[in-house]
C-alpha cells in the first residue's frame, strides 16, 4: 500500500476555505428546508389527530 499524505496537506488553505464555504452555502438551505419539512409533517399529523 502506498503511503499517501493526508488530504489537508495536499490542498492549499485557500482551496480548502473555498470548499468549506461552498459546503456551508449548500448545507444551510438544505438543512433549513429539511427542518421545515419535518416540522410541517409533525404539525400536519398533530392537526389531524386533534379533529
Would you give an account of this structure?
With 51 residues, this protein is mostly helical. It has helices at residues 7-10, 13-50. The model has no long low-confidence stretch (mean pLDDT 81).
Top keywords for this entry?
51 residues, mainly alpha, 2 helices, 82% helix
Topology:
Elements: H1 7-10, H2 13-50
Span from first to last CA? Answer: 64 Å
Structural class designation? mainly alpha
Task: Work out the number of β strands.
Answer: 0
Radius of gyration from the CA trace? 21 Å
Share of β-strand residues: under 5%
Summarize the helix and strand pattern as letters: HH
Main beta sheet strand tally, sense and closure: none
Total helical elements: 2
The rough form would be described as elongated
Helical proportion, percent range = over 70%
Which regions are unreliable across 5 or more consecutive residues at pLDDT < 50? none
Average predicted local confidence, pLDDT: 81
What's a quick, concise take on this entry?
With 51 residues, the chain is an all-alpha fold.
Amino acid at each position: 500500500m502506498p503511503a499517501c499524505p493526508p488530504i489537508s496537506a495536499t490542498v492549499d488553505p485557500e482551496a480548502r476555505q473555498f470548499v468549506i464555504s461552498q459546503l456551508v452555502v449548500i448545507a444551510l438551505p438544505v438543512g433549513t428546508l429539511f427542518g421545515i419539512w419535518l416540522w410541517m409533517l409533525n404539525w400536519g399529523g398533530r392537526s389531524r389527530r386533534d379533529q
